[in-house]
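User: quick one, fold this
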Amino acid sequence: MQLTHPDLYPLDILAFILGEGRASRLVADLREKRGLVDSIGVGSFTPAGYDGGSFAVVMQSGPAKTEAARRAVTEHLNRVIREKPTDAELARAKRQMIAAHVFGLQECEAIAADRGTNALLAGDPDFSDRYVERVQRVTAEDVHRVAAAYLKPEAVTVITVMPKQPAAKPEAGPAAAKRRPEVIARDLANGTRLLLAPIECETTVSIQMVMRGGLSVESEKDAGISNLVAQLLLKGTAKHKAADIAQALDAMGAEMSAAAGHNTVYLSARCLAPDFEKTFDLAAECLLAPAFPPDEVERTRGLVLDELAHMADTPHGEAALYFDRVFFPDSPYRFPVQGMPEVVKSLSRGDLAAWHKRYVAGNNLVVAVFGGIDLVKAAYHVAAAVETLPPNKALGFPADVPPRPTPAREVYVKPSEKGAAVVYVAYPGMDIYNMRDRFAMDIIDTIVSGYQMPGGWLHEELRGKGLVYEVHAFSMAGLRPGYFAAMAVCQPAKAAEVVRLVEAAMQRATAETFTEEALAPARATVITAKQLARETVAAWAFESAIDEALGLGHGFVRDEINRLRQVRPEDVSRVAREYLKKPVIVVVTSDPAAAEAIRR
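Assistant:
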């Protein structure tokens, strides 16, 4: 069917009922109850301009469980053909769709893109608004009718991608070893650490150059300097102007970028294998010898200031900035990575050059080259380019910093002119070196909030009751301690109730008697998410370089999975009791009077 067909709306509702959130039918049954899949979702795709489209169930599962999962999906599809959805399911799906619409249109750019896309595809710039209105008119009978009309067994196509079976007598070990060869590490005389991973038959090369730095080493006097330096690395060297660098990259079809984060500054590049040496030489030149041209400094400074000026334009942005300031009163994490406007305005070329000289040092550099390379030639080429970079023996980085103290429950309320209320309930956390606790906290994150996918206790309780538009929990950790927090967006009048239920969920985690059976799907969810995040050569190279630069070691990408597998129920209970004590509660709302009830 086409985008303007009336069946669009009940089909989309059906997709949400089946596969949106932990309480949906397929997720609740196949992942949470039976453990047949690592992840599962449903999408109703309706194109514009021609007949077609699809209603698809997409899942990831272990090979041994694939057939059972397929049969279970078929059972559920047959059930929706036979039976109408419940009133609760219908109401939940409609609420989820309203939330997705409202919070997807918080920024001017998103609104403009939505209007333009609507006009192009549907011939109506207000199509999205009408879509939400029509979704609300969908009945259980409508959903039942389209299920019977479109989900016919004879119309189903099943596509399964399975791992290759190993040969009877493999010549060079298992297939997994070929996909992820061992990383060869080498130390240069100046302290630079090289990580090389030649991958057979790989046609691309990923180049990662990483240094410790970023927000964690800044203060109120230089907040934002790491970011400004990173933004200027590709803006000109003594040999090449910014336009020359861009032209050279375009000519090769290569990509290059530089950025700063909470704990690192890095330059990344990706190219076709035959262009490795040219691309690497250009990347090394940009990192080691930036010219900081005055015109580029001023242009880039203006862009950063514009970005800072618009950070608080959305409810999420305003709340995130306020939360960081409140939660990190004595830590540089209280600043945005882009810095503080007054600092960014004051930074001189001399400041930028001095920062570069201090932190771009031989003993603070990790260079990772993964992909279609010749090991020996690449090693010599990389070493020749960076081995003259002098070390800085005076470099120091934060270590063993205590977490934020919270002797009592704290509540902060900030009035806002925006319509929604954004709630944070946060608990002081750990730094990235806490191997004893950080993996159990990942499991708690999954149980409470579904990790990187909507789910868990918070999603079931708050979304199930229609109290929030959005809710999820997450951990933040770096060279300095961070937090474990839940963030929710709701109507201002509901903020106090949302906080109460979030705190109740966290207290439940401290009292829960976890079992291995309950932990198994949570552990599988985290492991799957982490493995998928490293699926590409570039992602694997980047994470390996980051971990090496931070002192975790390039093998941490594998060690992390093993440590997650070793988390036991008693570890999860202990970490919950140790960390989920006195929260810092932050509410940014247009109704501060209603939020005052949170203090009681």
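User: anything notable?
Assistant: Confidence is low (pLDDT under 50) at residues 167-178.
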